[in-house]
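ok, trying the design again with the full structure, not the truncated one.
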């Protein structure tokens, strides 16, 4: 099984298309919507995690692209301003999946594979050092 995180941009005409349904029914994938900004008739964004055989994911991505949806890998959605960070650790305390940790040198470490983009760290940081790109 493979797992891939996708950054989707929907044109207004496709904003309400039931893509999760198609990914399950037509490609036997398990989709997990991590974040979404969808309004009927407007351009939409979605951060989607899909789990399934690699070939099925490729086919699902090709399907999405064929529907006019821009599909990019969700690579770096958290942005840390290291000049602002004072390594207080408050963000690590609220990060339930453990995506943010302090290493032995008290340096903040971000593991994007664990991040569910909940924004708890963004809110918790007193220095406004963390932003989400999505
Ligand atoms: S809460 Fe902000 S200042 Fe504190 S460790 Fe996290 S990013 Fe750095
Ligand atoms: S967005 Fe949520 S899961 Fe991701 S690093 Fe911040 S607190 Fe952790």
């Amino acid at each position: 099984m493979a797992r891939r995180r996708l950054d989707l941009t929907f044109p207004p005409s496709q904003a309400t298309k039931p893509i999760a349904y198609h990914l399950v029914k037509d490609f036997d994938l398990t989709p997990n919507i991590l974040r979404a900004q969808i309004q009927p008739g407007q351009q939409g964004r979605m951060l989607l995690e899909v789990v399934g055989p690699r070939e099925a994911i490729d086919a699902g991505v090709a399907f999405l692209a064929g529907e006019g949806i821009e599909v990019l890998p969700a690579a770096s959605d958290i942005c840390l301003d290291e000049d602002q960070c004072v390594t207080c650790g408050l963000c690590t305390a609220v990060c339930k999946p453990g995506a943010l940790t302090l290493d032995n040198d008290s340096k903040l470490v971000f593991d994007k594979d664990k991040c569910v983009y909940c924004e708890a760290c963004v809110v918790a940081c007193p220095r406004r050092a963390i932003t989400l790109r999505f």
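Keeping the full-length input from now on. The chain has two domains: 2-73, 78-132.
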